[in-house]
Structures are given as C-alpha cells and as structure tokens.
Request: fold
Amino acid sequence: MKTAIHCWIVCILIALTMSNGFSQTSSNIKSNVLTLDQAVDMGLKNHPSLQIANAGVNIASSGVTQNVSTYYPSISANGSFARNDGTFAFNTPGFPVRTQTYNNYTGALQVNETIFDFGRTINKVSASHQLVDAAQASFDSTRQTIILNVRIAYYGYMQQQQVVGVNQEAVEQTSQHLKEAKAFYSVGKVAQLDVTRAEVDFANAQVGFIVAKNQLQLAKLQLDNAMGILSSSQYAVQDTFEIPPFSMTLDSAEAVMESVRPDLVAAKARLEASQALVNAAWDQNLPTISANGAYTWSNFDFPLYSHWSAGLTISLPLFQGFSVTAQVDQARAGTDAAKAGLELLRESMILEIEQNYLGVQQAEDRIAATSKLVEEAAESMRLAERQYVAGVGSAIEVTDAQLSLSNARITRIQALFDYNSFLVRLQRSMGILSER
Reply:
C-alpha cells in the first residue's frame, strides 16, 4: 500500500514538473491570450541559443583578462627540504672521504615583470578586445534572430487561427445551404441533385476545417519552439494583423545595415582582431626586456640565512626553427579569410535586404488588391444566395460563390502575413529589429 502511495506521489510530482515549463513562463498571459510582446519576452528569456551566445561573451572577456595579465608582475613562492645521507669525497687533505648525514632547508620569494616586449602584448590585448566586441555583436545578432523567429512563428499562428475561422464560417454557410436545399427539395422547389451537391459541399467544408485545425496545432508547436518552451497548454493569439507603415528607401536601408547590423559588426571586429594577431605574431622576432628579483632563505638547519638578488634580462630570439615565420603566415592567412568572409557576408546581406524590401512592397500592393477582392466575393456570395432562395439561381452558383469568398479571405490573410513577415525580416536584415 505504501509503495502504491509513493508511486502516485512520484507521478504527481513528475506531472507538475512537466507542466511548470509553460506555466511559469506564461504567468503573465491574461484570459488565455498570448500577446506578441509576451511571446518575444518568453523567447528572450528561455531560448538556449541566447545562453550560448552569452557564454561566448564571457569566454571572450576571459581572454582579455588573460592577455592583460602580462602587464602585471608574476610572484611565486617556494620552499624545499632535503635530507642527504651517504659517503662524500672532499679535496681536503687528510679527509678525502667522509660519511655524513645532513639536512638542507630552502625558501624563496621570486618576482618577474615584463617591462617591454615591443608591442607583442599590446597587440594581443587589442585583438582580445576586438574579439569581445565581436562576441557582443554576435550576442546581439542572436537576440535579433530569436525575436525574428518568434515574430514570424507568432504571425504564422495568427494566420492559421484566421484560416480556421474562415473554414469554420464555410462549414456554417454550407450547413445552412444544406438545410435550405433539403427544405426546397421537400416542397419540390429543387431537384435531389441540389441536396446531394449541398451535402458534398458541407463534407468538403468539414474536411477543410479539420485540416485547418491540424495546421493550427503545428503552428502552435512552431511558436513554442521559437519561444524555447515545451507546452501542452492551449492558448490563443491576437486575431488581427496590424499594417505598420514602412517608408524607408532601399539605399537608406542598406546604409543602416552597413553601420549597425550586429553580425556585420562582428565580422569587422574579427577582421581587426586578425590584423592585430598578425602584428603580435611578427613581434615575436623582437627582444623582450624583463626585470626579476628573488629573496632566498637557506641553511643546513634553523635559523635560515637570507640573501637577495635583482636584475634585468634582455631576451632576443635568434632562431626558433621557422616557427615564428609559420605563425605569422598562419595569422595572415586568417586575416585574408576574415576579409573575404566579410565581403561575402556583406554581399549576402545586401541581397537579403533587396529581397525583403521587394517582398514588403509586393505584399503591401497585395493587401490593397485582396481587400477589393474580398468585397467583391462577399457581394457575389450575397447575390448568389439571394437568387437561390428566390428560385432563380442554381446550387452551382452558390457553391462557386462560397469557394471564391473563402479563397479571397485566405488570400488576404496570406497577404497580411507576408507583409508583416517581410517587414520584420527587412528590419532584421538591417539590424534594427527590437523586441517592441
């Protein structure tokens, strides 16, 4: 009995743990409606890729500390004890050989300081600072990518939610048309074919509704993934697309991209770091001047006697087996690769901006065209239903009008989705996408 109770307790705890993945992150959702701002906040809070990018910043910052440490003195302390026992030979007349046992105690404090290495450390520190800037820019780029993915997934959920509404209306309309056809058939106003057609239309509308609901669940999974959560909770999103204006020219968009896009900034910083590392590698051919000092205590027994030493050391590498030359060549090759990568990245970004810019313009034109299309399809539907009820229209005309209206509404929804998606993609390609 106790074992069964324990099993039930464990199962309840596991269920609560699994459900907390979304309940803790969605505590701000009111009335089971997830807003776009809430979705973006969840993505920035939970997505693991942002944690990876943040770790990259910390790693680069540690590299700065490691290189700057060369400016500071190196201080070390050591102590030793040795016991010696055996036969020793001496040059003392009359005592050529002696058996002796003695102890040896030694303690020392040593200080070393690099005074000047002709720019080697300066270039390494400069390169590490540039790598920190690159890591921070990569973090900002990852952040904008998360915002982009969440927004597009959110718009996809909105789109599918509206498509479900259109298909639900189609089910209601075909159901009403089926009732009318059966009523007219019962009084001999229409033929059996009209009832059969109405039943087929109703069945097709139900199938479309089922497919749309399944696509809605897939859209929810994509949104959950973009937010970095795993949720079994059901929620809705905003049901109306906004049409934010965008009036920037293409040249202005490309100019903004050149100056602020994070991944382009990161590529530039990595190129500068590579150039600094070339200089640091070549500086290994130059001498190094350092100061050193030591304070030592030693004796065969306590008390220990002390002495100190201090001096300057100049080290000049004469030949190191061509290793320095190879390191310089390697650093220069890395710089060439970084430079070519920067140009390739810039070209791909320009292409990305132009494609998204054209996509925004096309979607904006489609929104205006589809608005008129929906109005005309709704009017055709109204006339077809009126004529059918009056007995002067056919079931085929009603079916065609219903299908045209549903297609027109879905086409407008697609245009609204494309406009918002292309707009956020354009903002991301410019590097100005923010969470609000």
Summary: The radius of gyration is 38 Å. The domain at 30-93+117-290+322-430 is CATH 1.20.1600.10 (Outer membrane efflux proteins (OEP)).
